[in-house]
Amino acid sequence: MNRLLKMLLALAILPVLASAHNSSGTVALVGALVIDGTGSAPIENATLLITGDKIQAIGARHSIRVTPGAQRIDVTGRTIMPLLVDDHTHLGQTINGLEPAPNAYSEENIRAQIEHLLAYGVGTIAVMGTDHDLIYTMRQEQMAGKLPSAHFYTAGRGFGVKGGAPGGAGAAWDVNRPETPEEARAEVREVAAHHPSFVKIWVDDSYGRAPKMKPEIYQAIIDEAHRHQLRALAHVYYLADAKSLLAAGIDGLMHSIRDQPVDADLITAMKARNVLYVPTLVRDESTFIYAEGPPWLSDPFFRAGLLPAVLDKLESPAFQQHAASDPDLAKNSASLQMAEINLETLFNAGVRVGFGTDAGMPGRFLGYFEHRELQLMVQSGLTPMQAIVCATHTAAGFLGRDFGTLQSGQRADFMVLDANPLDDIRNTEKISAIWQGGKPVKPIAPM
């Protein structure tokens, strides 16, 4: 086992079983400020009552009756919020987080990555189109309760263009690349036979340097996906492509529109079918920030998840110089600025804004990037509460499951923080405890 896997497994979830045993099978966390993820005002001096893997009750301390014999945990002065939900990730693309590796797509590595995510307070992810068939075997293990980690949903093998996206370092990705509508429909049927959660499409031309998926191809993919009761989601960059995809029936735009400001026509089209918009701002930041030396390189919460050799490389002048030599550096920086403008516009217009990072690709670090995405959303103009709702209630709601908010009957997935993220969104990094399915697990330990 390589050093990174050993480190990740050491940091992985370790249920503290002894702390959960009590005569009633119920645990009460008492005294914290609770942000429930719905956008409602936080509950001060709250009681969170857990029975089994579910929240039994939650409310102001005086309003909740604690079952006799329940274990009481005093969390006075702390803040409780739901675990984060990332609707756009990739697994098994890198072993050290920084460089692609041909042997990265393995059960051992994927297990380490999803355990690592949970240690960072990320409870659920959606993998966007870069999975192999192994993921379906692992999904069965997850459903059987044999895979304690962040929960995952998958698009299986996505749909790209021959000679085009997804390309670059991922040119050998195991994705479908249909050249006719007939091929597209047949390949969707093949993917649908595995019962993925959705279908992923790449529609981009890499700043005009690569072929772009033709409308008749993505129309066929979307139609066939819908025929199999699967939602279709798209990698997108340009406003014009977003409008064309919306007209074709797309269900989610999994990146920001970054070439120009969004307009009223796009907003109307998105709201008409409640289409999800996932900004992935940190993805865009990662395309240029290493040339500047990211300020978060010195963040102990970031550094806690990396091997020393990776940190050494990230901090080396040679790495920074290589990043600065990218001919698209200025375009990438401008793309983030436009993405931030469009996020604020769309959110304020009432478009359904979710949460995602595109983490898991080289240089996009699973676990930390989810917290950095929250920071960039706030930098874009959202309040901390609005960003948290996007990353919990809305992101989870898109997956349609019983998690993402702290309410009676929901799965008891939450983190306990030493400071209030409504005061400063960076306080989501101050994790003192993580609970998944009503059991405590070990959080990442900042260096």
What does it look like?
The protein has two domains: 3-82 and 405-441, Urease, subunit C, domain 1; 84-288 and 326-399, Metal-dependent hydrolases (TIM Barrel, Alpha-Beta Barrel), CATH 3.20.20. The protein contains 15 helices and 16 strands. It has helices at residues 3-11, 17-20, 107-119, 134-143, 181-192, 215-227, 239-248, 264-272, 281-286, 300-303, 308-314, 317-324, 329-348, 368-379, 384-399; strands at residues 26-34, 43-51, 54-60, 71-74, 79-82, 84-89, 122-127, 151-154, 198-202, 231-235, 252-253, 276-277, 352-353, 414-417, 431-436, 439-441. Helix 5 runs parallel beside helix 6, helix 7 packs parallel to helix 8 and helix 14 (368-379) packs across helix 15. The two termini are 23 Å apart.
Largest sheet: 8 strands, mixed
Q: Give the full name of the CATH homologous superfamily of the largest domain.
A: Metal-dependent hydrolases
- Alpha carbon gyration radius: 21 Å
First-to-last CA distance: 23 Å
CATH class of the largest domain: Alpha Beta
Number of helices: 15
Fraction in beta strands: 15-25%
State mean pLDDT (0 to 100 scale).
Answer: 93
The CATH topology of the largest domain corresponds to TIM Barrel
Number of DSSP strand runs: 16
Low-confidence stretches: 1-21
Helix content: 25-40%
> What is the CATH-assigned architecture of the largest domain?
Alpha-Beta Barrel
Q: How many domains make up the coordinates?
A: 2
Q: What form results from the Cα inertia axes?
A: globular
Structural class: alpha/beta
